[in-house]
Amino acid sequence: MTVLRTFGWAAGVTAAVLVATLVVWGPGALASVAVLGVLEVSLSFDNAVINATVLRRMGAFWQRMFLTVGILIAVFGMRLFLPLLVVSAAARLGPGSVLDMAVRDPDRYAEHLDRAHPAIAAFGGMFLLMIAADFLLTERDIRWLAPLERALARAGRLDRAAVLFALGVLLVSAVTLAQPEALTTTLVAGLLGLLTYLLVGGLSQHFEQQGRTSDGTTAVGAVGRAAFFLFLYLEVLDASFSFDGVVGAFAISRNIFQIALGLGIGAMFIRSLTVHLVRRGTLDNYVCLEHGAHYAIGALAVILFLTLRYDVAQAVTSGVGVALITAAFLSSLVRNRRGP
């Protein structure tokens, strides 16, 4: 019953979207939207685990916001309007002109979006890399790949190790992988990704600490602000994941509304899965999952940087993430059978 309550709304919306797609655009569009939904789920499975690590620090109200207001932002903001704004900034055209281009001349719109790829890859790559580095460079009681994680924890004792590591990756990637004409764009976008992570993550941590009083209780106002910035953090994280899917979606459909609907129904299932993981305490029961998800996030960040020069198939991107999550899950099962 809990599973039905968690996933039922996503299944209901998906059914309605697929029926509407069939009526408006026909069977071909129906197939495209369904494939896009599956693509989004396969690309973002590790995102669900990472989201769950953040969402479990938030109260029931903000968990509902994540599933209501958050999904509207995810579908219409991140997968429809944000790409339009990126193309608008890159092509120096008004948003209205870009929307008209996307509807009337989707091939040209896709071409502009492809030209903006260095900025997209650098911003998303740096944001995701910081998430992975902050986790993996920190000493933890529970380890998955113990020898590697011990070495990483020792390296993490250096002050601001994650930031220094991420900056080094950005510099090497920009010099060796970015095209000469995109070098400045790559560096600026990467720095913006780093600053966004530090700003949103730092503010949420600040308000969480401020909300803890001397007797261990939590101040309501501070927790509210902390939860709000955690909510923003989740939305930026979602944007970092969704760009890759939006760009790749043009290989399946050139209709931006079909793309938004297909990726949107996938995003709804991912968000429902996130809430399910939190409510079932899955991360507490399968302790290696969080490690596997952060390795997957790091791998996706590396892939995004590689796409500055090389074409990487969506199957590779999703396959790496699913493989790491699956391996971490199996390791958790083995660990649980061995006992504490």
Describe this structure in words.
With 340 residues, this protein is an all-alpha fold. It has one domain (2-338). Helices cover 82% and strands 0% of the residues. The chain contains 15 helices and no strands. Helix 1 runs antiparallel to helix 2 (27-55), helix 7 crosses helix 10 (183-210) and helix 9 packs antiparallel against helix 10. It is globular and about 55 Å long. Residues 213-222 have low confidence and may be disordered.
- Structure classification: mainly alpha
Order of helices and strands: HHHHHHHHHHHHHHH
Count of the separate structural domains: 1
Strand content: under 5%
Taking Cα atoms only, what radius of gyration do you get, to the nearest Å?
A: 20 Å
What does the average pLDDT come to? 84
Helix content: over 70%
Summarize the structure.
This protein has 340 residues and is mainly α. It is built from 15 helices and no strands.
Keyword list:
15 helices, 82% helix, mainly alpha, 340 residues
Question: Topology, pairings included?
Answer:
Elements: H1 2-25, H2 27-55, H3 60-67, H4 69-91, H5 95-104, H6 106-115, H7 117-136, H8 146-155, H9 161-176, H10 183-210, H11 220-249, H12 256-279, H13 282-285, H14 289-306, H15 314-338
Helix pairs in contact: 1-2, 1-12, 2-11, 2-12, 2-14, 2-15, 4-5, 4-6, 4-11, 4-12, 5-6, 7-9, 7-10, 7-11, 7-14, 9-10, 10-11, 14-15
